[in-house]
TrEMBL record:
Belongs to the aspartate/ornithine carbamoyltransferase superfamily. ATCase family. Carbamoyl phosphate binds at residues 54-55, 104, 134, 137, 270-271. It comes from Agromyces terreus. It is an enzyme of class 2 (transferase). Residues 160-308 form the Aspartate/ornithine carbamoyltransferase Asp/Orn-binding domain. This is Aspartate carbamoyltransferase. Gene3D superfamilies: Aspartate/ornithine carbamoyltransferase. It catalyses: carbamoyl phosphate + L-aspartate = N-carbamoyl-L-aspartate + phosphate + H(+).
Amino acid sequence: MRHLLSTRELTRDEAVALLDIAEDMAAVQQREVKKLPTLRGKTVVNLFFEDSTRTRISFEAAAKRLSADVINFSAKGSSVSKGESLKDTAQTLQAMGADGVVIRHHASGAPYTLATSGWIDAGVVNAGDGTHEHPTQALLDAFTMRSRLHGTASRGKGLDGVRVVIVGDILHSRVARSNVWLLATLGADVTLVAPPTLVPVDTTGWPASVVYDLDDALAGSPDVVMMLRIQAERMHGAFFPNSREYARTWGLDDARFSQLPTTTMVMHPGPMNRGLEISALAADSAQSTVREQVANGVSVRMAALYLLLSGERGEA
Ligand code: NCD
């Protein structure tokens, strides 16, 4: 693997192999010394043009636990705010000898541009580009589902027949897109639920069904309910009447949560709008995987950086 830009391009074997390596990385996290020497002497740059808490910290922890040198770059406070282009920024990183670049950008396709432009030799990991993809989030979500379902017997497994309902702001969600592709590749059955205004105009070709009634979707007792954040910062107009109406119609509120089977996993990539798309009861329940998702994010990102940056690039 040379770059990790989207889950759409991953084969089942590649995805399962990455999740299996993440299992090994998770085992390392249980040790007293959590660090591996694998990426000693390599430099990973975290290039964040958009705000992030979990993803940035998680990539930083992952790179450090593999003994890489880490440089954190955020657009605020850098020359990007003076109008420096992605090309100039990339060339600066190239001159500094970056081996890996983790990039989050508000423009869909920016990581792809960076990876294919020839501006830089580094391996590129997409940490979320616009409304396009967020591959490591989908991989950590799949890892979390696999561990809850199969525990220590997860290795080698996909998610065949697992019924996943993804609810909310599909339109603006790169997490939803990356999950749809990856989950389908792993054999899961995906249903998207949202108000019609928050469904992309064209979902033909997406390996998922789209429905508009949350109660109907939940009545099928899915194995996983993944709630998405309402991305107010990407909304320039009214996509639903008001927050109360949204919570009542499309939120996982206490009433809906209490009707779910106790085996249904409740997932959310964070940051959560408590009381809007998810109630505190649901978010903090034993069925919620929110904190596991964050912990698993480090293991999955260690696996991705390992595959991209260890040994001879392109051979893995
Ligand atoms: C997501 C993102 O940034 O795409 N968050 C994350 O990475 N944990 C989802 C979101 O912002 O709602």
